[in-house]
Amino acid sequence: MPTVRVRWVGFVALLVVLLVVGAFIGTLLDPDGSTWGFAVVFAGTYLLLVLVHEVGHVLPGWFFGMRWANLTFQFGASVRSEHRDGRDRTPSEQLWISLAGPGLHIAAASLGLTVFDRNGLSFAAWVGCLFALFDGVANLLPSGRRSDGWKAVAALADIARRTVRT
Questions:
Q1: Do 58 and 79 touch, CB atoms closer than 8 A?
Q2: Domain residue extents for the chain
Q3: Cα–Cα separations (whole angstroms), residue 61 to 21, 100, 130
Q4: Where does the sequence pass through the membrane (predicted)?
């Protein structure tokens, strides 16, 4: 049975940062509006898109016969999956899993940018989608061993090495 874990210190820190950033943006863009209402909608939209990102990793894993072991929310989120039969992921499976999270993240954020208009609290959701879009694109950069971009580049390099050997 999959588990959902929340590392409260990291999650609360992320939530506080998002609420403060949302309140700041709300004050700048609509000084007469509901600053904290803007902040809550902004943070909620962003966190929902982080969850969509993680679901994007789970879907190809299910397709490849993996089971979802756990989903952890911390300062961001992570999902861990493993094959039902215990074997390691192939490089092509790793590539699909690594790219599907940011891909779904970017697609959902882009959809949000077209759906939400730019007035009232809907504008807060639009700004949340914009921030999430930047986050999804940044996640594709190979910026560290835990980033999806790094895992995708490593999988591509492994595929290339295997192709050259044959």
A1: yes
A2: 3-165
A3: 34, 10, 27
A4: 7-29, 35-52, 95-116, 122-141
